[in-house]
Amino acid sequence: MAAVDREPRSLIRSAGRWLVAPLLLGFAWLAGGLSTFTWPAEVTTFAAAIAVLAFAAAHRRDRAPVRLGRTGFVVWTAWLAAVTGWELWALFSLPRSAHPTISSLVNELTSSHPGRAGAVLLWLLAGWWLARR
Amino acid sequence: MTPFVTTAGYVVLALTALTLQVLATRSGPSGSRLRPAQTYLAAVMRGTPGRWIVLVLWCWVGWHFFVR
């Protein structure tokens, strides 16, 4: 009986995925065409953020304890410190043109509509991935 | 100092992360002492405060690149 009940659920789930994919792509393309410092950009970004946060609030999963290896913890922490240090060094160095930050590099990549739409899509997928954790 | 040197630094850091991630994934979860980055993220997000801090950071990334 349980197996029979599961079938329609999985059908709905897979149909939902097929509907979500074009919606995500369409939203990313729309949002990618908007300029910064405009209210449409604010509205679309905040709407997406609220949707993901609501999903995260509704889909809290209990997680088993995660065992962290000491070596790995030290290595990844050192890497994160190096990235932060390099970014801060670039941020506070002059002249600005000779020291690009991550933001300025990403801004160059997202200066075109397709590039910006791709960045929005990546941001949305990252949010969805994080919200399911 | 040129923009090339600064950018090269970011590329080196990105390649380092990629190498670490590949090494951690290829060695397997039980055999390697180095775990993939998502394991550390999972540890941070296991508790409710950590989970919401990461999600707020994600929101900030969106605001920083697409709104401001």
Q: Explain this structure to me?
A:
The complex is a heterodimer of chains A (133) and B (68). With 133 residues, chain A is an all-alpha fold. Helix content of chain A is 75%, strand content 0%. Chain A is built from five helices and no strands. The two termini of chain B are 29 Å apart. Chain B is mainly alpha-helical and 68 residues long.
Key attributes of the depicted protein:
heterodimer; A: 133 residues; mainly alpha; 75% helix; B: 68 residues; 3 helices
Topology of helices and strands:
The complex is a heterodimer of chains A (133) and B (68).
Chain A: H1 2-32, H2 39-58, H3 70-91, H4 102-109, H5 113-131
Chain B: H1 3-27, H2 37-44, H3 48-66
Helix and strand sequence of chain B? HHH
Bin the helical content of chain B.
over 70%
Percent of residues in beta strands of chain A: under 5%
Distance between the termini of chain B: 29 Å
The chain pair with the largest interface is: A-B, 50 and 37 residues
How does the helix and strand content of chain B classify structurally?
mainly alpha
- In round numbers, the mean pLDDT of chain B is 87
Shape of chain B: flat
- Helix fraction of chain A, binned, reads over 70%
Main sheet: strands, sense, barrel of chain A:
none
